[in-house]
Every structure is written in structure tokens, then in C-alpha cells.
Specification:
Layout lengths: L1 E3 L3 E6 L3 H14 L15 E5 L8 E6 L2 E6 L2 E6 L17 E5 L4 H16 L7 E12 L5 H11 L4 E5 L2 E5 L2 E6 L2 E11 L7 H10 L1 H18 L3 E5 L5 E4 L4 E11 L8 H8 L7 E2 L1 H12 L9 E6 L4 E5 L3 E8 L9 E13 L5 H20 L3
Antiparallel strand pairs: 1-5, 2-4, 3-4, 3-17, 5-6, 7-8, 8-16, 8-20, 9-10, 10-19, 11-12, 11-18, 12-15, 13-15, 14-15, 17-18, 19-20
Length: 385
């Protein structure tokens, strides 16, 4: 689905962001008269949504576009809100030269944070088993950044990921937090990562990943975390006993696809309520979550914003898809010339990457893993084919 224009918008933050979003969306849909001759998930009113990772700080947003063009199972439709204007079509612009600089947490700072996390876990007596840390990198473009350029390159190179662009947050995530179609729900949990090495085949790397006790343990925390939080909402839940390997251009992940059926009750939970219950999973937070999440803020020392938060869409019937905002960048505009000089304006994008840290993690390996995870957005910015 692609939407443009803004018929309505909610900006919220803090611990009540999910509740605020759910209440606003229900109330808004209750006042919309819908003519829907298609009847598929994603038809009718749709809110494009991106929610902050942490309770504080971080801004969350829901946008109801004036126009949505959608396609599902070979069926295409256009949804308009009122008398929506015709789009102004402009050529996709190239970003020009791309340069990089340290973000709020450099790779050196990230290594130090990983080292500190490993020490904390080893001294915790089992009270902290995993913490997921990240760092950022700033990309500057000599020309104004056209999000469509970045989005198209990500979609063409990572077709087995969920590609998204919501309010400046652009990425291609391999991890599905939660999808709902009627009473059916599913999730794809990723944790445990390897990346290509010269002289090694993907099959060899995949076999080592499956045999790695460190990665299997990290993955088990994540899949059990998701299942534990999702199970109270479901009458049925299927969790495979062993993970599979998801192969991407830049990395390989251990993956588990969880499927369930929501309990058939008169006042069943809304999608946003279930998303709130499962976020953050151990895949992006840690284990136990209550101990890991505060440590993230302490060791990273930066605001993640909407990185690693839920991103996706919800329709007026409660159907929707929310991925975890990974392999992404937050687009920010900046001036490449002094004030009043009349120079051109360039672009600024804040990129994020990280990984799950456990007591036997190697800080140097974790830095290398984060670098591999930055490649998708870097190459998309640089136009690498």
C-alpha cells in the first residue's frame, strides 16, 4: 500500500502511546462512513503507524492518508477520503554524494557499551540474560533526499523483507512483530545472526549458525518471550520447536514463525492492544525485559526514537501488519550551505543497527555484526545495485 496526503494525524508519546493510538483510531473510524466494495484487509480507512521504542522519550505517529493505493492477492484498489486532490508526480531525485559521520553513539562507544553489558550480565547472578544494544550512524547527502529513492532501492534488493516509509522513518525489516487478518495472527521472530565471510558458502555459515549454542540460546529467549506474551490472547498458538535460517543479502538470521488464532470473545483485543503486549520482545529488548530495557537507555545514552519500535498499518476492521523498525533510517533535512547563502539543501539520515548481547558475546564480533546490518540502508542510499 502507498498513501499520500494527510486527512488526519495523531502525534503521541510516553507510556500511553499505544492506548492513545487505539482510542484515537477507534473514535476516528466510528465517524467515517465507508463504502468498501472490495472487502480485503487494508481496504477502507488505513492508518500508517510508527511507534516509539521506549516509553520516554520518543514521538509516535498515526497518519490517515487522503489517498491509498493498495494491492493484495492480485486485487487492486484505491481508497480516497473525501475529495482527495490529484497527486503531483515528480521525478525521483538522486541524493548526490553520500558521506558519513558518527552519530550519538559511535562504533567505539558501542563496543564499550557491549563490554559493559557483558560485565553486567556476568555479575548479575542470572538476573540479566540478554540485552539488545544499538548505535547510530549519520549519513549526509549533497542533494535533498527523496525518500522514494531509498525506498525503491530497499524494496528491490530485499524483496523478502517488509519495506516501509512512515513519517520519515524508512527501512526494510526482516522481522514481523505481528500481523492480524480477522482472528488469525502471526509473527516472525529473529534472533541470532551470522554474516558472509570470504571463502565460506552460505550453506556452511547457515549450518554453523544453527549449531551455535550462543545464537540458539539468544533465539530461544526471543521466541519464548513472544509466545509467552501472545498466548493469553489466543485460543490456539503454534510455535515450532526449532528455528530455520532466513538468508538475506547481508546477513543470515535464525527465524521462527509463530502462528495463532485470537480467542473469539465479544470484546476481543484490538490489534494495537496486542502489539503493546508483545512489544518489546527479547529480540529487541532483552531478557528479562524489565531488567534489560532500563539498561539499554543507560548504556546507549541516546534516544532511539522509533528505531526498533512497531511500524506498519492498521485498517478500520482491526486488520494490519506491524514490523519491527530495523534496517532503517530516520530522514532529517539539513542545510549544506550557510544561512542566507542561497545554497542548495542536502539531506541527513540517522541510521541504526545493533544486536543481542549475551554473557559470552565478543564485543569485536558485535561491532562487526552491527556494521553488516548497516549495509542495506547504506547501499540503498548510495544506489548500489
Amino acid at each position: 500500500m502507498v498513501g499520500w496526503g494527510c486527512a488526519a494525524r495523531l502525534d503521541t508519546s510516553g507510556t500511553a502511546r499505544f492506548t492513545d493510538a487505539d482510542s484515537w483510531w477507534r473514535q476516528l473510524c466510528g465517524h467515517i462512513d465507508v463504502e468498501d466494495e472490495v472487502g480485503l484487509p487494508g481496504c477502507g480507512p488505513v492508518a500508517f503507524t510508527s511507534l516509539a521504542f521506549a516509553d520516554q522519550p520518543g514521538d509516535s505517529v498515526l497518519v490517515l492518508p487522503e489517498v491509498v493505493v493498495g494491492e493484495r492477492d492480485g486485487v487492486r484498489w484505491i481508497t480516497t477520503i473525501g475529495d482527495a486532490p490529484e497527486p503531483v508526480v515528480e521525478p525521483v531525485r538522486q541524493p548526490g554524494t553520500v558521506s558519513y559521520s558518527d552519530g550519538r553513539l559511535s562504533s567505539t562507544g558501542y563496543r564499550q557499551a557491549v563490554t559493559a553489558a557483558v560485565d553486567r550480565m556476568r555479575d548479575s547472578g542470572g538476573d540479566l540474560l540478554k540485552v539488545v544494544l544499538a548505535h547510530d550512524l549519520v549519513a549526509n547527502t549533497s542533494e535533498p533526499l527523496d525518500e522514494r529513492f531509498l525506498l525503491h532501492n530497499l524494496a528491490s534488493r530485499y524483496s523478502n523483507c517488509w519495506t516501509f516509509a512512515v513519517d520519515g522513518l524508512v527501512g526494510a525489516t526482516p522481522e514481523l512483530l505481528l500481523e492480524r487478518r480477522g482472528y488469525e495472527v502471526r509473527s516472525r521472530v529473529l534472533a541470532g545472526t551470522a554474516w558472509p565471510h570470504p571463502g565460506r558458502t552460505d550453506d556452511e555459515i547457515a549450518a554453523e549458525l544453527l549449531a551455535s549454542a550462543k545464537n540458539r540460546s539468544e533465539h530461544q529467549y526471543a521466541s519464548e518471550s513472544l509466545a509467552e506474551r501472545l498466548r493469553p490472547f489466543c485460543s490456539e498458538l503454534s510455535v515450532p520447536a526449532s528455528p530455520s535460517v532466513l538468508r538475506l543479502r547481508n546477513v543470515l538470521h535464525l527465524a521462527t514463525d509463530v502462528e495463532g488464532k485470537l480467542a473469539d470473545t465479544p470484546e476481543g483485543p484490538g490489534l494495537l492492544s496486542v502489539v503493546e503486549a508483545v512489544h518489546p520482545t527479547a529480540a529487541v529488548g532483552g531478557t528479562p525485559t524489565a531488567n534489560a530495557v532500563p539498561l539499554i537507555a543507560e548504556l546507549e545514552g541516546m534516544d532511539r526514537g522509533r528505531y526498533a519500535g512497531p511500524v506498519g498499518w492498521i485498517d478500520g476492521s482491526g486488520n494490519g501488519e506491524f514490523g519491527i523498525a530495523l534496517r532503517c533510517g530516520q530522514v532529517e533535512q539539513q542545510s549544506t550551505a550557510g544561512a542566507g547563502s542561497g545554497g542548495a539543501r542536502g539531506g541527513r539520515v540517522r541510521l541504526f543497527a545493533g544486536g543481542g548481547i549475551v554473557p559470552d558475546s565478543d564485543p569485536d564480533q558485535e561491532v562487526a555484526e552491527a556494521e553488516a546490518k548497516l549495509l542495506p540502508v547504506r547501499e540503498a542510499l548510495e544506489g548500489v545495485r
